[in-house]
Design a protein that fits this description.
Blueprint lengths: L1 E5 L7 H4 L3 E5 L4 H10 L4 E4 L3 H11 L4 E7 L2 E2 L14 H4 L3 E5 L3 H6 L6 E5 L4 H11 L3 E5 L8 H18 L2 E2 L1 H13 L3 H4 L4 H8 L3 H7 L9 E4 L2 E4 L1
Parallel strand pairs: 1-8, 1-9, 2-7, 2-8, 3-6, 4-6
Antiparallel strand pairs: 4-5, 7-10, 10-11
Helix pairs in contact: 6-7, 7-8, 10-11
Length: 238
Amino acid sequence: MRVDIVGSPAELQPKIIKGKNVAVIDVLRATTVIVTALQNGAIAIIPKEHVEDARQCYTTIMNTGVLLGGERNAVKIEGFHLANSPFEYTKEVVDGKTIILTTSNGTRALTGSVEAKNVTIASFLNATAIGNWLGNEGEDVTIVCAGSAESYTLEDALCAGMIASILSERFAASLSDYAFTLMHLYKGFEGNLMSALENCHHAQLLIKKGFIADVSYCMQKDISGIIPKLSEGIIAIS
C-alpha cells in the first residue's frame, strides 16, 4: 500500500486519484462539519462546488427535510439556513435531515475526487477511524487536503500527517516524500495541536472573525468513529 498526499485541489489530477481510496480533509471547517452533522443524525450531505448549484439542488428537492448550509469567506451565504460552524449542526437541527453544502474549499476538493474508487471524509474528529478503514482496505491511498484559496494549509497538513502515521505504523504503508514529511510534521505537534495554529494563516483568520471556539472544536482528535463516504454525489455514513 502506498500513501500520497495532495496539498490542495489545484494539484488534483485524475492519475493521482483514479482507482484509489481517497480521504478528503478540510479541518477548518467543511469536513469537520460533515462529520459532526452525520454524527448528530443527518441522513446525508450533498456537496456542491458552486452556490448556484446548491440553490438549484435545493429548489429541485425542496421540502422540510432539506437544509442549505455553507459559506463564502467564512460568512453565511444569504438565504441559507446554516453557515459553516460545526456548532450550528446540532442534533436538534440536523437529525433526520439532508443538507446541501457548499464551502469555499472543502466541497471543491470533494467534487474533484469523484474518480477515486472510494472517497471518504476525514477530519481530526474521525482521523483514526478513517486511517484504520483505509489500512484495512489495503489499497493505495491519496489524501486530498482542501487547503485555502488553492494553497497548502497547516491544519489540513497536520491531519493528513496523522492519517499517514496510522497507515505507516499500523499497516506498514509506503509513504511518498510528502506524506513522510507531513507525518513528521504531525508528530512534532502531536501533543499540542493548537500550538501549531499560532502560525496558521487560515486558523488565525477564523479566530479574528470570532470563531476561536470553532477552531478549538475542529482540532479535537477521535471523538467520532464514523466513516462518511461520497457516492454518486451524496455523502452518508458507510
